[in-house]
Structure of Porphobilinogen deaminase:
Amino acid sequence: MKDKIVIATRESQLALWQANNVKAQLESLYPNLSVELLGMTTKGDQILDSPLSKIGGKGLFVKELETALMDGRADIAVHSMKDVPMAFPEGLGLAVICEREDPTDAFVSNNFNSIDDLPKGSVVGTSSLRRSCQLRMNRPDLVIKDLRGNVNTRLRRLDNGEYDAIILATAGLLRLEMQDRIRQRMSAEESLPAGGQGAMGIECRSDDVQTIEMLAPLQHEETAIRVTAERAVNERLNGGCQAPIACFAILTDDTIWLRGLVGSPDGKTMIQSEIHGHKDDAKSLGVQLADDLIARGASTILDAIYQ
Ligand SMILES: NCc1[nH]cc(CCC(=O)O)c1CC(=O)O
């Protein structure tokens, strides 16, 4: 049993909330444990701060944190599962997946109560291809405008009047106690979430058995099963939260219901599929769903984006 654990974390308000949440859970499990936060800036944060950047790529928010784990400067890193690439560097891995917060997308606006309430031609802010392709499909009249930055930056730009509405993850707003900003939690039919959205995962060194053992109680089995199915879709399609891919699993008793879609950024083509199966087959259900999306033409859309 360790007496000290260091958490590598980004310094956005949301990342700090998540790290502090894990710190509090560990300290309540282990009264003699001290947990420290090691704050750092990632490539992803620099891009968020840069007004002209449209650079994509996987793992932008996790690489520096992983270096700190490999160097031994930190023992664990707390991630939003939506931002975690499928493959981990040699010697690192995911120890646990924690209980999921509300996985939906939130409609946020100062003047309108829902997507349906938006007048023709309204300006909606999001930089997520997954969100914009679904918005365009349902409402071809809307004008989608780029919107980057952390949650506070995005809300400030909404309040400045640059957008009629913006779309954010419900989970982030709830964690930051900004639930009064949410006008509508969008249904899966309106905006199918990103794989892993709303769930936190904890990464550590694969040979650090003491830490892995201490983290074990934080694992939430239902969430882990759902997120495993969703991540298998992204892995097969070679995409993450930067791609126009949505996938969302629900678990009822032992049965997974997994839905997925790949949309063209212009909102003109939407390839959708779903599958049911046993929870023990989470990963293979995700692969099967991805294969079905490919069979229906998903690669044409994705190849054009990945180039
Ligand atoms: N890509 C940024 C990101 N990564 C995780 C969250 C929200 C919290 C979560 O999904 O757990 C967000 C912000 C957003 O999409 O609005």
